[in-house]
Specification:
single chain; alpha/beta; eight-stranded parallel barrel; two-stranded antiparallel ribbon; 8 helices; 19% strand
């Protein structure tokens, strides 16, 4: 099986850096400092126009968790359809009930829109907040989800490597396992070799300074020192290193 690097992008700029670094697939977001939110249609259209990347678009209306109010979910469905209509190759999403189980009804509704446009359905790291990963992945398989992004229910995927390996061994012939969180050129090959998975997800993060982030008495900073006047971007060089490492 061909090994795949997926780059987590927060903008059209990021998508170009991933493309120039040799990636073949991206997850397109906005607001990566909130864990990734729904991207703009403009960023999707420019990416599809100027690259040949496979683009999986995030559908997530807000930060925090994955138990959505009806208004949030209606927005997610509208965004899903709009992004698929404008060239998205698939959608990454995750809907949970208040007890940490897969929200079957919401998942089915999003899935039906994705499949109407023949796209890929990816259940993102909401999976890492489920109460039972085995029951949850079996539910996702039964529903028809193509791929699950997970760190093995740990903050970093290398810390969750044993669960990722077990999920791959038990279910890898029925659903794709994509490892993400803390993946880089120094550990991607080890993750693949030890677990049997063939795809990893990475942000390849770097920083760009914006001197207008803080004023005399006002700050729009979201990063800690020394990056309080920076914003995060994808590094083309780190993408190259990651792609070459596997």
């Amino acid at each position: 099986m061909e090994r795949i690097i997926e780059i987590c992008c927060g903008s059209y700029y990021d998508a170009l850096q991933a493309y120039r670094g040799g990636a073949k697939r991206i997850e397109l977001n906005s607001g990566l400092h909130l864990g990734g939110l729904t991207p703009s249609v403009g960023s999707l259209k420019l990416t599809k126009k100027n690259t040949d990347l496979k683009v999986i678009c995030m559908i997530r209306t807000r930060g925090a968790g994955f138990h959505y109010l009806p208004e949030d979910f209606e927005t997610m469905k509208e965004d899903c359809r709009l992004l698929m209509q404008n060239g998205a190759d698939g959608i990454a999403f995750g809907c949970l009930d208040a007890d940490g189980n897969i929200d079957i009804n919401q998942t089915q509704q999003i899935l039906s829109i994705i499949k109407e446009y023949h796209g890929e359905a990816v259940f993102h790291r909401a999976f890492d907040c489920v109460s039972d990963p085995y029951h949850s992945i079996e539910t996702l398989i039964d529903l028809g989800i193509d791929r699950v992004l997970t760190s093995g229910l740990k903050a970093k995927a290398m810390d969750g490597i044993e669960l990722i390996k077990d999920l791959q061994e038990k279910y890898g012939d029925r659903i794709q396992i994509l490892a993400g969180s803390g993946m880089n050129a120094g550990n991607a090959k080890e993750m693949m070799d030890k677990t049997g998975i063939y795809q990893v997800h990475s942000s390849c993060k770097d920083w760009i300074n914006d001197p207008t982030t803080t004023g005399k008495d006002v700050s729009y900073s979201y990063a800690e020192t020394p990056h309080e006047n920076d914003y995060d971007v994808v590094s083309q060089e780190l993408v190259k290193q990651l792609v070459n490492s596997i």
